[in-house]
Amino acid sequence: MKRFLSALVALPLAVSLVACDSQSGPYGAEPSAQRSHLKRAANAVKYVALGDSFASMSGADSLDDSTPRAEFCMRSADSYPHIVAAQIGASLNDATCQGATTADVLESYDTDEGRVFSQIESLTPDTTLVTLTIGGNDVSFGAPSGCDPRDLIAGDPEVNEAFPGILQTDAEREAACIADAQAANDEAVAELPDKLDEIYQAIEQRSPKAMVIATGYLPVILEGDTCDYANALSPSDLQWFQDTTDQLNSTVEQSASEHGAIYVMPNDAAQHTACTSADDRWTSIDGSDTNSFPMHPTPAGQKTMADAVVQAYESHVGA
């Protein structure tokens, strides 16, 4: 996939020319013409953001209602796509939407608010930058939490159908439930690369000149965390969070590499989980201390992701 545009390469050149004689602009142009030249260069960056709630949702009181189906999609004005667009001077088409799966990037669907069009339709031949945050809703982070033995009632028809045979003890029922959930999640993870392939192929077809940056998922809770939230989880639940996060990010990174995209994950993300102090958290469990949504990035996490995306973008356009 092509990731460079002559218009983008011209941007750092234009910026460097600002330091030249204040009485002349590029190629001897007047200062007003110089400013117009720089403005045109900045406007050449046409940015489309694709993805789920890890890209759309940030501050709980900063929802952006200027886009279609904004209330349903819960797009925040301080999410990383908006910060990136402001930092690099790009025009932004924010197509991200909470709850989105890989299928929702490619296909439209109906909600109580109306039809949500496929995110891929936002791309055009002159799109120059695409960010992609997707895959988290295709797998399951919380399946084991539904395997509490108190919820697995002996003799329940649904339980018997899900777990054939007579399960004599609570421990057996819980173990069978977790094993079934693990098998389903393993299947979902195994299917994810093909689904990501379809998205990258669609991006290539619609925006063949675009640079594509894929972001990983900031971890919420990891093995070894010791806050009240982590301590309330069973060892199997905590391990599930760790394994699912690792599998998801590994798959996203591998798919990005195979399609010539850039994978981005902020450094030290493991040191900024929901178990750190409120000021240091990049993700949150309940959002109460960080003005964020439960189980999602905090405004600080979105800002950190934006900085990582901008750094990757600028390093590849020679800024």
Automatic annotation (TrEMBL):
Q: Which InterPro entries match?
A: SEST-like, SGNH_hydro, SGNH_hydro_sf
SUPFAM superfamilies membership = SGNH hydrolase
Q: Which UniProt keywords apply?
A: Disulfide bond, Signal
GO terms, molecular function = triacylglycerol lipase activity
The catalytic residues are 53, 296
Q: Does the keyword Signal apply?
A: yes
Offer one example of a GO biological process linked to this entry. triglyceride catabolic process
**Secretion signal, residue range per the UniProt entry:** 1-19
Q: Which pairs are disulfide-linked? A: 73-97, 147-177, 227-275
Q: Which residues form the SGNH hydrolase-type esterase domain?
A: 49-303
Q: CDD domains, from UniProt?
A: SEST_like (cd01823)
Per its UniProt record, what PANTHER family does this chain match? LIPASE 2 (PTHR37981), SGNH HYDROLASE-TYPE ESTERASE DOMAIN-CONTAINING PROTEIN (PTHR37981:SF1)
Q: Per its record, how is this protein called by name?
A: SGNH hydrolase-type esterase domain-containing protein
Q: Which organism is it from?
A: Corynebacterium vitaeruminis DSM 20294
What high-level taxonomic lineage is stated for the organism? Bacteria, Bacillati, Actinomycetota, Actinomycetes, Mycobacteriales
